[in-house]
Amino acid sequence: MSSNDPYIRQIQLSIQYIALTFGFPILILGIIGNILNIIVFLHKASYKHNASSFYMLVKSFFDLNVLVISLAGDIIIDGFHANALTSENWCKFRVPLAYINSLCSSSCLCLQAIDSYMCSSRNATIRQYSTIKKARYLIVGFLFVWICNECPYYFMKSANIIPNLTCQTSNTIYRTYRSYFTILVLNIIVPITIISLFGYLTYKNMHTLNTDGQYRLSTLTKQTIRMALYETIIVLLFKCPFGIAQIYLVSTANIVKDVYRQTKEQFITLFFYFYVYNANAVPFFCYFAASKSFRKQVIDTIKRIRFNQRTNLIFPLGEIVGATWQEHWFEHNQLLTRVYYGDDLALYYDDDVARSTVPYISKYLSDAWRYVKRNYGSFGPDERLYAIFHTGRYSGGHPSYYYSASHDFKNVIDQGAGPWFEQLGSMDIPTHEIFHIVEMASFNTQGSPGFW
């Protein structure tokens, strides 16, 4: 049957229409959403030390790559019939790269579901398996595995099927392996099974915790679990129909079909290919809908990000205090100098504190504050600890909290009189003051009746 047949021509025009009108909105919204995810997760210090949020961050990178490499290519090929993008060299570059990113994204989704289950478990041993260090190793490991899985494609001779304009290998065995194992099993069946199972187990854990109240999750953990569960539901909504369509195509691959059936199946296949890209495009909107805290962070990030021309870095306004800080509380009246600044700590000295102590103090307090945030939740909108050290004045120490104007709405520990690290136990006072911040401001809770 000629492709000039009006019915077939109409379906082909419908295919082109879907690619342009359905593909472009997914591409644009997906790129914007994933970029916002990356910015928020990178700028919020507490997210960098939580395994679930780390998986979300890395998944956003892979999802962005999938949309730019794979979806944009499909729009150009199917929407504009660009034959150049189905050349052998281009196919060998685009197809493996697209599947590496897609498989890595699915791996992050599965690891995220498993981590949510571990974090919500009442068993302390299971919870201990959720660490940022293990998460990094797992991401690198899966990336290596999927690169190895896709490497054979570079050595296979590609065949350009016209007019379908698809990239395929001429090696029948490898093509069958990709159709059944890589696409159907690894990219569809395994992710759907894992996120369904662990999503259900996580939901049961959360229900149990809400019922008995014996173990309390941190605010950050509850937030990431809720975000992960929302994403699981939405991803299943997009992956399951695509999986059913793929099972049908694989099971009928050896059946002789007339041109009408082939054209109809091409239309259905293309529709579900674009439909499943939503799974890579919508995570940001899932997180935004699931978490009030995430919504606030997104809005604050959009409003407060500015470009710092001196360092060519992007910083949120209001979170970076100046290089100096004038004390204006109690009898304190020193002009402090910032000697260290990181994701977890801003360290200030007066003129008499030895600068040689900066490496030790900054490491000790950064480690301590990360531990506190990991176990005792959020401490206001600014996640940093502001530590002030004096030598030769202001004996003892005191804390201040993010909800207090006395110290410019920062979580502060202020201590003297030193000298620091010249005697055993010199970190006792700073540690003691951190305990007070935990008591008075953990889980964004203001005040404690037990404070003395």
Task: Based on the model shown, name its key terms.
single chain; 452 residues; alpha+beta; Rhopdopsin 7-helix transmembrane proteins; Glutaredoxin; 2 domains; six-stranded mixed beta sheet; two-stranded antiparallel sheet; 14 helices; 10 strands; 60% helix; G-protein coupled receptors family 1 profile domain-containing protein
The residue ranges in which pLDDT falls below 50 over 5 or more consecutive positions are 160-165, 306-320
Going by CATH, the architecture of the largest domain would be Up-down Bundle
Total helices: the number is 14
Q: SS-based structural class?
A: alpha+beta
Can you tell me the overall shape? elongated
Mean pLDDT: 82
Number of separate domains: 2
Element-by-element helix/strand order = HHHHHHEEHHHHHHEEEEEHEEEH
Largest beta-sheet details? 6 strands, mixed
Radius of gyration: 27 Å
- Let me know the number of strands: 10
Which CATH first-tier class of the largest domain would you pick?
Mainly Alpha
Tell me roughly what share of residues is in helical segments.
55-70%
Task: State the CATH topology of the largest domain.
Answer: Rhopdopsin 7-helix transmembrane proteins
Structural description of this entry:
With 452 residues, the chain is α+β, with helices and mostly antiparallel strands. The chain has two domains: 6-303, Rhodopsin 7-helix transmembrane proteins (Rhopdopsin 7-helix transmembrane proteins); 318-444, Glutaredoxin (3-Layer(aba) Sandwich), CATH 3.40.30. The protein contains 14 helices and ten strands. It has helices at residues 6-21, 23-43, 51-80, 88-120, 124-127, 132-150, 172-212, 219-251, 259-276, 278-281, 283-290, 292-304, 358-376, 428-441, and strands spanning 158-161, 166-169, 305-308, 313-316, 324-326, 335-341, 345-349, 385-389, 396-400, 411-416. The strands form three sheets. It has a six-stranded mixed beta sheet, with helices on one face. Strand 7 (345-349), helix 13 (358-376) and strand 8 (385-389) form a beta-alpha-beta unit. Helix 3 packs antiparallel against helix 4, helix 4 crosses helix 8 (219-251) and helix 11 packs across helix 12. The longest helix has 41 residues, at 172-212. It is elongated. The termini are far apart. 36% of the residues are buried. The model is unreliable at 160-165 and 306-320 (pLDDT under 50).
